[in-house]
Amino acid sequence: MASVAGPVSVFFGGMPLSVAGAVCGAIALRRFGRLAAEGSELSMAAARLMRSSVIGLIVCVVAFALNAYSFFTVLPEVLQMMEFGELDLSVESGVGSASGQSATWG
């Protein structure tokens, strides 16, 4: 999951998805590390999967850093726009709404 959650969180999921991917990557790394250390038949496969979980964990951490940077860069601008009334969050300005009517009830 960590290999997929990192790149997807850059575009859609944001910081919560990258944290979830990093947690899954850390859990997988720990469990595959135990299997690789046992020396059984599965140790070679576990070592390869452990390498994959390390890469997924790194990707999720980098995605979290990018998401956090973009969030804290844009946040002051959005707060300033809200403070001065420049940010229009009303639904009535949408397509198909007539003046004086609510977009929900018509």
Automatic annotation (TrEMBL):
Protein name: Uncharacterized protein
Native organism: Rubneribacter badeniensis
Keywords: Membrane, Transmembrane, Transmembrane helix
Keyword Transmembrane tagged: yes
Bilayer-crossing regions: 6-29, 49-72
